[in-house]
Amino acid sequence: MQGTFGQVEFVPLPPRFADRVRWGSVVVGCSMVAGMVLLFGLTTYLQGIVHGHALPDTLLGKAAAVLPPLGVLAMAVLVLTCRRCLRGDYLVVASAASARNALVCTYVLTLVLILGSCAVPIVFRVWSDTPHFRAPDLLTTFSTLAFATMGFLAGMGYVRPSMQTLRKFSNHAIW
Fold first, then answer.
1. CA 84, CA 98: separation in Å to the nearest integer?
2. What digits encode the pLDDT tens for the residues 144-159?
3. CA 158 from centre of chain
4. Distance CA 15, CA 36 (A)
5. For residue 46, what are the CA distances in angstroms to 8, 10, 137?
6. What is the 3-state secondary structure (H, E, C) of the chain?
7. Which of 52-56, 100-104, 106-110 has the lowest mean pLDDT?
8. Which residue, among 96, 64, 78, has the nearest Cα to 32 in the 3D structure?
9. How far apart are CA 35 and CA 112, in angstroms?
10. In this model, does residue 50 exceed pLDDT 70?
11. 118 Cβ partners below 8 Å, 6+ apart?
């Protein structure tokens, strides 16, 4: 059931699933952007109340606070671009493969950044208002991890749907 046109390979998708990819990628991607901006705003507001200023005093602390949300925003952009893997009701195999690789790389990088943001306040003194090391901000850590995981799973579901998903959206037997 696969077709080729020139050098590009296409895989037919059920029309309802193709619509889900078109609209779902926009909804999930925009929700991730809005949620991450709100979460970062809430975190900086709470840090401003606790410490008197929004971001840590050291450059390493600022990087640990800013880089994981930027990784999630990169994941959101990738989820938004999942719709480019469609041509009508067909999935372009090469575009989907590159989107999958980009999603995996971005997710792994975001996980490393999240783990690093947990380790930085434990190992280094990033706030000058206290002489002690501090525990990481668990609200931001787990929320960022949840956003990144949600984006990764949604993106992978859009560019690599399972047979069960395709059967669910199909009006007739597939393959």
1. 11
2. 999 999 999 999 988 8
3. 13
4. 31
5. 51, 49, 11
6. CCEEECCEEEEECCHHHHHHHHHHHHHHHHHHHHHHHHHHHHHHHHHHHHHCCCCCCCHHHHHHHHHHHHHHHHHHHHHHHHHHHEECCEEEHHHHHHHHHHHHHHHHHHHHHHHHHHHHHHHCCCCCCCCCCCCCCHHHHHHHHHHHHHHHHHHHHHHCCCHHHHHHHCCCCCC
7. 52-56
8. 78
9. 21
10. yes
11. 136, 141
Torsion of CA 19, 22, 23, 24, to 10 degrees: 100
Sole residue written with tokens 């480019």: 84
Tell me which amino acid residue 147 is: F
Q: CA nearest 160: which of 99, 74, 109?
A: 99
Copy the structure tokens of residue 97.
């493969």
| Token pair belonging to 90 | 């067909």
User: CB-based contacts of 175: which residues, under 8 Å, 6+ apart?
Assistant: 1, 163
Burial of 172 (0-12, 13-18, 19+ CB in 10 A): exposed
Single pTM value for the model: 0.85
Q: Residue 29 carries which side chain, given as an amino acid letter?
A: G
Residue keyed to tokens 């005093």: 57
